[in-house]
Specification:
Layout (H helix, E strand, L loop, with lengths): L3 E3 L6 E11 L4 E6 L12 E5 L5 E12 L2 E6 L5 H5 L5 E5 L13 H4 L3 E4 L4 E9 L6 E5 L5 E5 L5 E5 L4 E4 L9
Parallel strand pairs: 8-13
Antiparallel strand pairs: 1-5, 2-3, 2-7, 3-6, 4-5, 4-7, 5-6, 8-9, 9-10, 10-11, 12-13
């Protein structure tokens, strides 16, 4: 293979697709999109492939195209079903410095995960464990100190300040929100 194994990669990565299976006879693979910006692939020459065991390698993109809600990749050096088969289950990532810029009041889920959550008066509430997509307003799943879990809507009148640089979110919760 012409992929390069990467060791001791210290950079933060953003997963943008996950290889589902092979396709065709030339070594193409079908991947599920995990990005809100599918156009990003037009500017990419390579991706970092992360194996299920955590090993990473760089893959050169020979060509790509979309098929419905999925993307098809042909990587350099993967020229048959047998060689491409090993990529099934791999996550495809880009360096965090290649992320798409968002509007001022928009955030990536990975930027919010791990943020400390506190009230406006400084009372510690917990840490963001995940962001739930509900079809409407996203909900922060906040793990409290004593196995408590809070579901906090990401409404502007509740999440007053979000500082991903300092990893802190300040809330003005309505009465009863943190008592459920």
């Amino acid at each position: 293979m012409l992929s390069t194994w990467l060791s001791d990669v210290a950079e933060d990565l953003i997963v943008v697709a996950r290889v589902a299976r092979t396709r065709g006879l030339r070594g193409e693979v079908v991947a599920d999109l995990l990005t809100d910006f599918p156009g990003r692939f037009d500017a990419l020459d390579q991706v970092i492939a992360i194996a299920p065991d955590g090993n990473r390698r760089s893959l050169q993109i020979e060509e790509h195209w979309f098929h419905g809600t999925r993307i098809i990749f042909k990587f350099t050096g993967y020229d048959s079903i047998d060689t491409a088969k090993e990529l099934a289950g791999y996550e495809l990532a880009v360096s965090a410095d290649e992320r798409m810029e968002l509007a001022k009041d928009q955030f990536y889920e990975w930027e919010l995960t791990g943020c400390r959550v506190e009230s406006l008066d400084g009372k510690q509430i917990g840490t963001v464990r995940e962001v739930m997509r509900t079809g409407g307003v996203e909900v922060l799943v906040v793990a409290g100190d004593r196995d408590d879990e809070y579901l906090v809507p990401m409404a502007r009148d509740i999440c007053i300040e979000i500082d991903v640089e300092k990893k802190v979110i300040r809330l003005d919760p309505p009465e009863g929100l943190l008592e459920l």
